[in-house]
Amino acid sequence: MARDPSTTQSEAPAHIKAVALKLFAERGVDGVSVRQIAEAAGQKNHAALTYYFGSKEALIRELIVDGARRIDNRRNAALDQAAESGGLRSVTQVMEILVETSVDPDPPAWGECYNRFVVALQFSNRPLFMEALAGRWNSGYQRCLDEVRRLKPEMPADLLNQRLVFMGGALGGILAGRETELADQTRDHPMWSDSQTLHRVARALAAIIEG
């Protein structure tokens, strides 16, 4: 069931982060001011964000790490479970893990935001994104890539690596697009709401790799 940070998370910092993530996803980090975040979070004191996080950039860094850590934990857990069940046998199965673990299983009432946030941020300020991660919180993603390499030993390494780059870009773009559509609650979204859509996304990503 969807959660509403304004009612289920009583601590102000958590609520500010949830509201900021929504605004950044909708407008980009450069399109949102500290004052706007504070007002949207119901903070009468516009210095609340600075008080809790130090700066807008520090808040952005924290949001990057929060989401990346959760996704990485889900991916590693899924990979561990697959290994215990005999291992992954197809590229599509690897893509299923990448897709499913990128989706928030407990989104806020207004919908998922993280993929939109990080995809837009990488276009506008990729150095900030990479510095915030500092090479961490991507072990699950790297394990997935290693699984693909294991499953495609016949493919030249340079070609496979190129296709993995294409796949990664498609993964982020598709899921960001999905979030944008589902955030529009003024109409139905039968394609994105279909229970099979994410499985089809995984198959499409597998096709990028397998050609």
From TrEMBL:
Report keywords, A-Z.
DNA-binding, Transcription, Transcription regulation
Q: Which SUPFAM superfamilies match?
A: Homeodomain-like
MF (Gene Ontology): DNA-binding transcription factor activity; transcription cis-regulatory region binding
Pfam families given for it?
TetR_N
Report if keyword Acetylation is assigned: no
Sorted alphabetically, which PROSITE patterns does this protein's record hold? HTH_TETR_2
InterPro entries assigned: Homeodomain-like_sf, HTH-type_TetR-like_transc_reg, HTH_TetR
Name it.
Helix-turn-helix transcriptional regulator
Organism placement in taxonomy: Bacteria, Pseudomonadati, Pseudomonadota, Alphaproteobacteria, Sphingomonadales
